[in-house]
Records
---
Amino acid sequence: MKRFLPILLLSIVLFHGAFAQVRLGIVGGIQSDNVIERNSIPGWDTSTKKYYSSHSGVQLGVIAEIPLDRKGYFYFQPGIHYSSKGRQYLKYNDSVTADNTDTVYFKQTLNLGYIQVPLNLTVKLPLSKNHRNSFFISAGPYVSFFYSGSVTNERLMETTLPKFLSEKEPVTVGKGPDTYKTVEMGLNGKAGFELGNVMLSFYYSRGLTSFYTASYSGSFYHNLTGATLGIWLVSKQLPAAVPKDTDKDGIPDDQDLCPLQPGTLKYHGCPVPDTDHDGIDDEHDSCKTIPGVARYNGCPVPDTDRDGIDDEHDSCKTVPGLARYNGCPIPDRDGDGVNDEEDKCPDTPGTVENQGCPVVEKKEIRQDVVEKINYSAKYILFMSGSDRLLEGSTGALEDLATLLKANPASHLTINGYTDNSGTPSMNLVLSQKRADAVKAWLVRNGIEENRLTSTGFGQEKPIADNRTQKGRAANRRVELSLSMEK
């Protein structure tokens, strides 16, 4: 460990010679170490802890300063110091205890010496324009290497003549009970004033690792406070004044026509112009007055068919089309000249006049069929006040089913009516049930349900006088209508 100090000193000196802004200084001061001990010994705080006190020591070493910015506010300050640490135990015995132990008082002093390497970051707040006077705050980690150590025991013995005994023994370093560790780490901070080449500061440091292994379970940490005086061996070399360059484009503000915008010397500190404001400067823009994109050298994406959809998004680049079809025309799947959006039969060729559908000749129902339907309707009868078909209706219904089967493309509309007996609402329900009854009979007898429509109209549209029994019978009816379309 004794070889470490000159090697580090030589490294700092060489480092100082390599960088003109690095300074080297000497620091020294006094300090007080109050060892923090934690253990689980019963009653230790009241029986033993009160007899421990702090240890006074010194700190002496060198410090380097390396600037971290051009304005002189932030620094890295490594160093190497010799630091004496330890603690003291002193107990005076009362007369009874002294008589029993033959000891008037017992004093034990632990003296430890370390080579300490702090690695601090420092902030300086100038107190003068030339930055030679400042208030500073510094903090960082440190590493301490064990250098030397001893324990001194002093006793005053109660004999015929008082006798003073003093013994000094070196401490043991290594591993195992009652040994001191070779390396200790912690944090330190300091604050003070720098006046020219002189530094005055107060500092505090706290160990983060236990420096001692006792014969019992416990931990031991150095806890130091102190004051130092330092002297820089060379004066601070302030950074040369740098012309103000607000936009950081390398052109000083007093020569920059656009001091708030980075630019080029060719344009006197202003950016290269961008006439069409497309983000591509005129020196790289092949279409300076038309906004474009970089991959086309500042020109717009081409639109070969001039349909308003650029070629990068146009699936039919040479044929004008619409955006919803990716630049292609509206499709015409059946090729009848009517596009699919206007074609009501897009998969079947048709005519423009028929909205893209083929022309279908309208089929008419033969007159004789119509007459047979009307004839059958007259003989479809119901019980009074009921939707039950009378037995005499069967023949008419069978004839009707036969006509429907013979005309498979036809559609039958069944309208039910009643006389005015009862309330209109009841008659409306009854007429619907009668129309549904006819429909149900036909479905049961082989007619497709989708060819039949049944509707009740109640007592509306009478065809005879409801004041007579004959007229009411005539009004209780169904009307049939046959068509070729639904």
---
Amino acid sequence: MIINADLHIHSCFSRATSNNMVIDAIAPQAKLKGLQLVGTGDALHPGWLKIIEGSTTPAGDGIYSKESCDFILTAEVEDNKRVHHLMILPSIETAHAVRKEMVSVDKEKEGRPRVRMNGAQIMDIVHDHDGLIGPAHAFTPWTSMYKAYDSFMDCYGKKPDFLEIGLSADTDMADTIKELEDIPFLTNSDAHSPWPHRLGREFNEIEVEDISFTGLKNALKKKRMKANYGFDPRLGKYHLTACTRCYEIFSPKEAQEANRKCSCGGTIKKGVDYRISEIATWKRPHHPYHRPPYIHIMPLAEIISLAFSKGVTTKFVQGIWENLVNNLGSEIDVMIRVPLEDIEIVSPEMAPVIQAFRDKTLVIVPGGGGKYGEIKFPENNLDNYL
């Protein structure tokens, strides 16, 4: 069985997260997106665990179902060096047990808690409870493993169960690092909102024996990843080295000469591309035999927004989005699989736009310093598309 899975999101209990991040909102949006399995996020928060228990039906072996969406227990924690770790846990009972060992009482209010432990200690607890763990958004410049360490051995003392790439990198970039050859990569949304331009904006295609904790664990251990779907890394907000205030892009040499200080007074933040170049083994990627393809994707609503210069959440954009999804299937299918002639029948104005996305003729302005990259049509002119 091949499923689409987004294994890193957050709940309404995490900082800067929508109040709509509740099971009753996430489940129907996941179906529209085309996801079969979603990580709960924030599984160490007692309030969120109560909502999960009250809003889902246990489906056995670590799966909690709501309508046609299956959830698996996941959580993100920040360690004593501000490194973020993603864990996948086998049950609600396990989540309670891990929380007791890991989270201080004064941190109960935060969905993504900071714990007074290092990566190795966190890993030991998760493994003691039969869970899975790996670095979250492993290359970002603020709270990632490779921001703090040059090797996963320095962080964990042993190999993690997986590595989450993050929005500002892709497989070609990560596979320049030799120590990652034997580690499966995850691409997840880290969504703070349930709407489809956030939920599942990155996801994994995985071959599992069945939808269960054991099924997912075996798939990761046996490297049964079929594809990673994610942003073109240039769209990530930390892809290039840039000022965190005015977002001016700097070369690594320019950043060093300026002592990481922009003329506007802002801080020049090292980009993911530069950081990977510092720790890379090779200049070109060396993909191991088990590495699946990495397929660049972006949210359908953002493509519509770009085409018509309307806000992503406007009724206009959402109306076109709903028309496509209601008539042609999930958003993932519309973006990747539905024949263009079928799209043209339902939405003639969107067929050439989606074709431009599939043909990779869109122009990308790279992001950096905390600002997402931008997508434009060639010469910012839609005459050839609409």
